[in-house]
Amino acid sequence: MWNLRKPLKLQYRLYLLKEYWERVGSAFSQLMNVTVLLGDRPNESISSRAYRLSGKKWSWTYTQLILDKVYGWLGEEEHCRRSYIADVVAANELLLEYERLYKDYREI
Questions:
Q1: Domain residues for 69?
Q2: How far is 86 from 69, CA to CA, in rounded Å?
Q3: Residue 108 burial by CB count (10 A; 0-12/13-18/19+): exposed, middle or buried?
Q4: What does the pLDDT read at residue 69?
Q5: pLDDT tens-digit profile of 28-78?
Q6: Phi, psi of 104, deg, nearest 5
Q7: Which of these, 16, 1, 25, 5, lies nearest to 83 by C-alpha position?
Q8: Residue 68: is it exposed, middle or buried by C-beta count within 10 angstroms (0-12/13-18/19+)?
Q9: Contact 70, 57 (CB under 8 A)
Q10: Is 55 helix (H, G, I), strand (E, B) or coil?
Q11: What is the DSSP secondary structure assignment for residue 37, as one 8-state letter?
């Protein structure tokens, strides 16, 4: 008899491992953006910054083109735009959490 749990367990572990390395990559990108590239937004990745500043500075337009091309080869289209949107969503979630906590404290 086939044990279907084992492949699913392996798939789940691989999924968790992939998620972990994506978070590590994102944290590393944020670190490099702030320390090496002297960015002023500590929660912003290099990809997100490239999208935000694309069209304003030629160097960031070029950076966005390169990053989008590399990630396009890896199967992710419009990587920089998606990264920017993910950063905006994360910032909004943080603000909503803060507002919820602040509201609770204000009622006391």
A1: 5-106
A2: 19
A3: exposed
A4: 98
A5: 999 999 999 999 999 999 999 999 999 999 999 999 999 999 999 999 999
A6: -60, -40
A7: 25
A8: buried
A9: no
A10: coil
A11: S
Determine the Cα–Cα distance for residues 7 and 1; give it in Å rounded to an integer.
14
Domains held by the chain: number = 1
Query: Residue 30 in contact with residue 42, Cβ under 8 Å?
Result: yes
pTM for the model stands at 0.80
64 contacts: CB under 8 Å, gap ≥ 6 = 47, 50, 51, 54, 80
| DSSP-H helix ranges across the chain | 5-35, 46-53, 58-73, 79-106
Q: What is the pLDDT of residues 2-20, one digit of tens each?
A: 555 667 788 888 999 999 9
Residue recorded with tokens 């890896």: 74
